[in-house]
Structures are given as C-alpha cells and as structure tokens.
Design brief:
By secondary structure, the protein is of the alpha/beta class. Helices cover 51% and strands 13% of the residues.
Length: 221
C-alpha cells in the first residue's frame, strides 16, 4: 500500500481551511499533516514537516502568498506548491508559475478535480486550467513554449481530427465548458462531450487540459 500524500494547507479563512481538510480526511490516500493561517507559520511548517504538497492561498494576512512561495522555494526547490486563489489575476498567475509552482487553482473548483490535481502534482505533473492558458501563452511563453506552427500544419499533423473536432478543440483552448461549446456550436451537450472525448483520445492525452496545452504548443491559436 502506498504512503498517503502528505499535505500542508495554508489558508487564513478557517471555514475554507476546515472544508479542504475534511475533503482529504474523507478521501483515501491523503494525510493533512499541518495547517497554517499565515505566511510566517506556513514557511516554518513547510521547512520542518516537509510535506509532499503545499496548498497555498495567496491572500494571507501577514505577507503575500507570492512572498511565501519565494521564501519556501529559495530554501528548497523540491516543494510542490499548488496555489489556491479566489480570482484570476494575470500578473499573479504569471509570477507564481515563473517561481515554480505546479498549479493555479480557482477556489470554485470541484472537490473531485482538486483531488485529481493533487494527485497529478504529486506525480510531478503541472496542472493548468484551460482558462489561464491564453494568459500564460501571451505573458510568459517560457512556461508554455509555442512552436508557432500554422493551422494547416497542425491539421496535417493531426489529420484524424474532423473539422468539427477541430472547432471544438479551439473552444476547449479558450476554456469553454461542454455546455458553452454546445451552445456556441448549436449542438447538444452530450454531443459536445463526445467530441471532447474523441479529441482527447486522438491527441493521445489524458484530459481536456492536456489537450488544450498541446494545442497551444502546436500553434492552434
């Protein structure tokens, strides 16, 4: 049996912190080893406990989350930090990824997706919400390098994609949900979901986020 993933939760709002802890306590394979409600405490606990994952809120009372990230990673680059935020701020997003965080998560995310992200990051992968991919591409292409291939070259490389799947993929890159895609293309949500599943299989990726990132790298937009 694998050891549980050791998690440090850094969040100044007690209700949110308790909710996150309860999620992991009720799920197999996780161990919340420590909690912190301010930046100073977070830094001390990260250094002494050395968790596998640090879930870090950027809005802390004593110092900015970005400062906390800098101090932690200056001491040990091996920490895997997942940023929790209630907003999408272009400057913050680019800054934290340039510092070396593994994921930027908006707090309205589903519980199942948060568990998935923690597992992905624990294995060494990054998680990038499709909604922020365009921000990273435009503001910091060191994070998502782009090949600048033409649309024709992309379609030639992935000729197994139908024209409709190509249209759906472009909307996935823009961060559209299945419901959004269905409305924009005047199709049912079930059909939109089927197209997304086909795209994931054809691009040889694991999920819609990886499909979006691959499309960005290959120059679809």
């Amino acid at each position: 049996m694998k050891d549980p993933i050791k998690i440090l939760i850094v969040e100044d709002h007690k209700l949110i912190r308790v909710g996150i802890k309860t999620l992991f306590d009720d799920s197999d394979g996780y161990d919340v080893v420590a909690e912190a409600d301010n930046g100073k405490d977070a830094i001390v606990k990260a250094m002494t406990i050395k968790p596998d994952i640090i879930l870090l809120d950027l809005g802390l009372p004593d110092m900015s989350g970005i400062t906390v990230i800098k101090k932690i990673l200056n001491e040990n680059q091996n920490f895997k930090i997942i940023v929790l935020s209630s907003r999408m701020n272009d400057d913050e997003i680019c800054k934290v990824f340039s510092l070396g965080v593994y994921a930027y998560v908006i707090k309205d995310i589903s519980t199942d997706m948060l568990l998935y992200i923690v597992n992905t990051v624990n294995k060494g992968g990054m998680w990038i919400d499709p909604k922020i991919v365009p921000i990273l591409r435009e503001r910091n292409d060191k994070i998502i390098p782009q090949k600048h291939t033409s649309r024709a070259m992309f379609k030639n490389a992935h000729s197994n994609l139908t024209q409709r799947e190509y249209e759906v993929l472009k909307l996935v890159v823009e961060g559209k949900s299945n419901n959004d895609i269905a409305q924009e293309l005047c199709i049912s949500e079930h059909t939109a979901k089927a197209h997304v599943c086909n795209i994931i299989q054809k691009l040889l990726v694991d999920d819609r986020t990886q499909a979006a990132v691959k499309a960005i790298k290959e120059g679809i937009v």
